[in-house]
Structures are given as structure tokens and as C-alpha cells.
Amino acid sequence: MNPLTGLGPFFAVDTHSAAEPAQPWRPFAEVLDDGPVLRERIAQNRAVLGGDFVEPRVAASIAHLGLAARIISPALGLAVGAGAVPDYSTAWWQPKLGGAFPLSLGESEPVESDVVSAFAARVLRGPLARLDEAMAQFSLARNVRRGNVASALNGAVTVLRSERPEWTDRVSGIVAALEELPELAGTATRENGRFRRRSCCLFYRATPDRDGPKCGDCVLA
Fold this sequence. Notes:
Blueprint: E1 14-15, E2 26-27, H1 36-49, H2 56-82, E3 92-93, E4 103-105, H3 115-124, H4 127-135, H5 142-163, H6 168-178, E5 188-191, E6 194-197
Parallel strand pairs: 1-4
Antiparallel strand pairs: 2-3, 3-4, 5-6
């Protein structure tokens, strides 16, 4: 059984062989670097959020959070459920707005070494590191970018604990180890099981008065 089945759209992936998928699939790498595809996506997010009154960095943060969640969710699901970590260097996507965009990954085999180390190398220091560097070009502070990754990880954890309660111990063990890595250390707190990030994703600023609602895990809440 596919360990990602039934976990929702941010976990759902297609699988492709070594051959390139046919259109409308496009190389996922094109959205991980500062370039026309990423800039177009951020501009589209800004338009959906409200247009000119929305600061570019706010639109960039929302786009970053969504991309991070789409990368982390299936990776964590596979790590916990199958002991495997996908290789995003061969991933494909379809650039759609609204919810989780279609994503296709190559076959993911169980890793022979520590799954946390593999996750760090293939996810945190792979596509997420490239995306982090790109997002820095939009005046998005490093603590916000790191917090977005932490929020994306916690969102995936929440789904796995709800939909796969039998995985709870494995989820907790892997995530605890990930949160000690330099990429995530100090980004959030967990008190009595409640996650709260140490930064804000800036979504509350996506209103004309820049005083909209706060997310449940926000440091400002």
C-alpha cells in the first residue's frame, strides 16, 4: 500500500519513471530558484491576496509557505511510512494556484542509512535550501523563511498524527531529530504538545489595514 494514500492533497504525488513525463508536467527545479517562474508565481499570489496593497514580501512568504508544505509533506510521509526519502532533483510539477499543485516524484526506495540524515540532505539542504536562497531576494527575513519551513513541517505532522495514529511514535522521533538540526533549531517551541513558531509568516498583513487575522501558531497570536 502507498503510505501516502488518504493523507490529503499536500501528500499526494504521481510517480514517473526515468523518462521525462509528458506535458503539462514541467521540471520542479524551475520554481526553486529566483527566476521568471518563481516571480510569476509570487505575483499571482499577490494578485489573489488583494493586489497592489499587498507587500511583495507578504506574497513571497505565502508562496514560500505553500511550496515548503508541498515539498515537506510527501517527504515526511514517505520517511515515516516507508523509511524512504524522495529525490527532488528529478521531480516534476504543474504550476497551478490554489491548494496543492500536482507533483510527480521518481520511485523512492528505503534509505540504507539514517532516515533523518537522508531527509536533511535530500529535503532541507536540497530543494528547501535552494528555495530559501531564492526567497531572500524578496526582502523576506531569514527568521520568517525558517519559520515557514517549521510551520510546513508541523502541518505535515498534524495530518500524520490525525490520519495515521499508529505512526505517532515514529513521527515524534523523526521530527524531534529534525528540529534539532541547524535548519530548524530555535524556529519554534512545543509546550504541552502545542506548536508555536518564533516568527510570523506575515499573512496578517495581507489586508488593506495590514491588521488581519493571525495564524494559530503565530508568535503574535
